[in-house]
Amino acid sequence: xxxxxxxxxxxxxxxxxxxxxxxxxxxxxxxxxxxxxxxxxxxxxxxxxxxxxxx
Length: 55
Prior knowledge:
Blueprint: E1 4-12, E2 15-20, E3 26-30, E4 43-47, E5 50-53
């Protein structure tokens, strides 16, 4: 799977809704799988089955 960048659109309970930066797809991800301190508007990088804060 190729690396992708996402933006956190909103947080609902224990889940975050992410929007793919290069597309229209929305992804629902458990907050436990995301780096600590994520909030709405945070940019994330996904690579090798792990999320990290985008630089």
